Amino acid sequence: MKPDIKFVSANGLRFAYLEEGSGPLVLLIHGFPDTAHSWDSVRPALAKAGFRAVSPFTRGYAPSEIPKSDSFDADTLGRDALALISALGEDSAIVVGHDWGAAAAYSAAGLEPKRLRMLITVAIPHPASILPTPLALWSIRHFITLQLPGAAKRIRAGGFAHIDALVKRWSPKWAVPPEETAAVKEAFRQSGCLEAALGYYRCFRGLPKSQRAKVTVPSAAFAGTDDIVAPKAYERARPRYESSYEIVTMPGGHFMHREHPERFNAELLRLLAPFRS
Hints:
The chain has a single domain (6-275), classed as Rossmann fold, CATH 3.40.50. It is 36% helix and 17% strand. The chain has helices at 43-48, 74-87, 100-111, 134-139, 142-145, 151-170, 182-188, 193-202, 232-236, 256-259, 261-272, and strands spanning 6-10, 13-20, 25-29, 52-56, 93-98, 116-122, 219-224, 245-250. Strand 1 and strand 2 form a beta hairpin.
């Protein structure tokens, strides 16, 4: 049984979120194309282990509020994460981010490192370590195509078939069940939501200031063996970290936490064991 949607105001917007459990706060931030339901297998595992697991629908993703301005840059996303921690009544949290959620987590760690008890990222190595090789640029060509005029129309075509194509390309060995993308397709049917989600790409301007400093927060990064970003990129990122840094290599692609939920949850709980209340 999934939890009811709750709402909270943070960083000038009304955010929807899902919550399970009590104890130390673990903020679970989704990416694209996804929603807070990305963490439906993770929240109950965290709750059972004695954590308060909260997964927000990030700015612009229904039923969260769509900002009136095109404000989707990484530092704004990082400030959202920090503001959500405060709005949820906590001074600090363990922050887990996937895809654009990882970008938000990296920025939050750079903006106010003392607010993060631990930084855990999924499928995105530290952005400062990503080299613009021809292969890397081809792998992330969606950063260009999703900014082009008509991108929203192309995504809506064929019942959002492009969403399924992206997930399959990023997790090539995953036989994606139809229900896996149902939640994000439903969100994108809401007025303005898809355009807002594409705003994350429109507002991308390279490495923000918050991500240029080295990470001082204890950290771990999940790397999928079948992802478009090879695990060796995470090793190349090691000099970006001044505190502890662990690379957790897992089977699966970009959506490894959904492809192999039992393995992911076991590794995540191992990392979080020192923080159990």
